[in-house]
Amino acid sequence: MQTKIAANAQAMRRWLNKAETALGNHSDRLNAINIFPVADGDTGTNLYLTVRAASDALDGLDPSVTDVGAVLTHAGQAALEKARGNSGTLFSVFLCAAAEPLAGQQRLSSALLATALHRAQIRAWTALSDPVPGTMLSVMEAASLAAGEIDALHPGDDSNHALGVTLDAAVAAALAAVVSTEDQLDALQAAKVVDAGGVGLLLILDCLRSVVLGEELQGTLLDDLHGYSVQDPHIHTSMPVDEGVEVMCTISLSPLDAATLRQHLDELGDSVIMSQLGGGEAGDGTYRWRVHVHVPTPGPAVELIRTLGTPTDMSISALSDTSGHRSQALQEAVDSGGHER
Question: How large is the average pLDDT for residues 90-95?
């Protein structure tokens, strides 16, 4: 293993830049196997656009910032504001949470990586109202557990070697977790594919390993994943069409109103994700939240959100619409104050 390891703030910038490129290269295959929670074939696109938002945000950050946590916080908040879909939202939550224990740190170590992965996977699981194993959540958990086990074997070891071993273990565990997703969800088992979001997160983690260790991405990492070969069909196109819509927005709410919103969104739809955006309490008892939900029609959800506050950055997307035409019509109806039911 190489001992010349790059684990500073500049390396974190390179990590997200590399992850953007890798996801761009793999977006078509990730879309092809995207059938859970809905077969809308956009996980690769959503992850790519979300990570691109994180990477682009760092282009405008002063390059003299050497605080690893500050760099990742800036990237994570930008990603969460512009997150796309379940997978993009969950990765944004993951990134924001991972940044927290790294605040004030000039360099990533084995112990810090283990702590960051643990914090991140816990936050991602709790952001979802109904978390499901066999998704990218399981991949996050596996990487976190593996990193924690290595760190426990070498307490206090902040050497480059320990960090390299921890990264290797985290990526290996993530790969094993991706393979296992096929057996954890009936939909994946029936289609004989692994979870698209899990594969996307595996790629992102391998990009981190690659940048820190100064090595290339592992070229054969994804070779044996079911459904992932370029010769395999776009399995999502054979799945039943989901007529629902995805509603996302940012809104300032008190903790009580946030809990109320989550409860009622759970009643209206599914895939509810709510995560606090940074900055803490605004001085009026409210906090900023990023909200994501799948609902049959947008009207009731939009009305509910507007009764509790003033949403910004609201987007409405038809889950079954790959052309964007129906999504645009839905968006225009909401923007004009009308209601699509």
Answer: 97
